[in-house]
Amino acid sequence: MSKITGFLEQPRVKEKYQPVDARLKNYAEFVLPLAGDSAQKQAVRCMDCGIPFCNNGCPVNNIIPDFNNLVYENDWLSAIETLHSTNNFPEFTGRICPAPCEAACTLNINDDPVGIKSIELAIIERAWQEGWVRPQPPQVKTGKTVAVIGSGPAGLAAAQQLARAGHAVTVFEKNDRVGGLLRYGIPDFKMEKHHIDRRVEQMEAEGVTFRTGVLVGAWDKKSTVTNLAKQTVTPEELRAEFDAVLLSGGAEQPRDLPVPGRELDGVHFAMEFLPGQNRVNAGDKLKKQLRAGGKHVVVIGGGDTGSDCVGTSNRHGAAGVTQFEVMPQPPEHENKPLVWPYWPLKLRTSSSHEEGVTREFAIATKEFVGKGGKLTGVKTVRIELVDGHLKEIEGSEEIHPAELVLLAMGFVSPVGSVIDAFGIHKDTRGNALAGTEEEGGYVTNLPGVFAAGDMRRGQSLVVWAIREGRQAARAMDQYLMGTSVLPR
């Protein structure tokens, strides 16, 4: 235990942000990580509980009290070794994870929780700075070959684990750069992409081969999902060439809003909007980038993707941004005795919201209105929750001016063409059907073909993707070798 009375003596130390007017001028990260001494002051608040609920609140089961104590003792090398033992990419989760571990923190019952996420980020940033993050190539090669389809967090985590187990791993990515939704779904102001690039360099030194611009299976030409592939391979070719295959693509099929006027010019999915800016930031020249500059923007959907659209629109110089959420506004503070240690429903205000947005709750879209085929507004109606059902309020219809609508209502499933091309059974939500049992988990109905991450569980968090990638790697190692020393 670091200091038994630390949580009584030290208030929570939060990361600071650059001022709004400064950060809106670019797409760079604006969160200022905790310095070493600040992280140590934060770590001292950890009580090293007899039952550390934070461990179970974290999908990868980070050993949180241990690395908190190591930071307090100034043993940063041991801290990163402890953190890496459960999480391949803490620089990703330290930036974009919503931190369910903090919601489960025992201190959160009646105080501010330990800033676990900020400590995690401080540890990995110190490790990169000191040169402690090095390639870990296997001492012995197994002679087995593995194909990983999708280079998001699930695919990257699985590929790294399998390579370190001695297998020859090839990662296939349909787009032109590695990272999946980390690369083209997460705005750069939340996570700059050089964090992905340096991990790719590490993995290449560990023996992983990356093949970008390669599509596996067929593709629906009507799809709005980003696809920059210049080459196609078939599932039959992969199964013939590799001893095992992992499907680890993201849930990219967006939820649509089929109301009158949906066909108007100006109504787009969020993932038609966000990837374009990331590509421009990376140096690509786009002929028709979808931009919000000078427009009244309506974002439909109150989650993280909607928040990302708000932040990007403001950086484009939008005339105004309004965000719709169909559910009533949640309470500003949760009832902790009722919901702890679970993830609470409460009003969450992101850094993008703080940059400028009008938030509308309990509102539904009735129609997109326009003139000459172009969007001019959104017709809405107010709703209320009655006996568990949403009911329209008579006489509450109004029209909001809009030249750009971004649909950010979540994702229904992975792109089905890859799953269908393999002939893999699906669950009721359109995901690849596979279990998570320790013996025989993550395998589909096809021997040697596995599924993990969004491809198996549907839209979820980066930290869940990393967990599934690691567990799938162990299952595949067991399949290939009969046993495995990889952690689950």
From TrEMBL:
Keyword match Membrane: no
GO biological process per UniProt: glutamate biosynthetic process
Keyword Protein biosynthesis part of the UniProt annotation: no
All copies of domain Dihydroprymidine dehydrogenase, residue ranges: 24-131
Keywords on record: Amino-acid biosynthesis, Glutamate biosynthesis, Oxidoreductase
MF annotations from Gene Ontology: iron-sulfur cluster binding; oxidoreductase activity, acting on the CH-NH2 group of donors, NAD or NADP as acceptor
Start and end residues of each FAD/NAD(P)-binding domain: 145-469
Pathway: Amino-acid biosynthesis
InterPro entries per UniProt: DPD_II, FAD/NAD-bd_sf, FAD/NAD-binding_dom, Glut_synth_ssu1, Glutamate_Synthase, Helical_ferredxn
Source taxon at top rank: Bacteria
Record-linked PANTHER family: GLUTAMATE SYNTHASE [NADPH] SMALL CHAIN
UniProt-recorded name of the protein: Glutamate synthase [NADPH] small chain
The organism of origin for this protein: Deinococcus marmoris
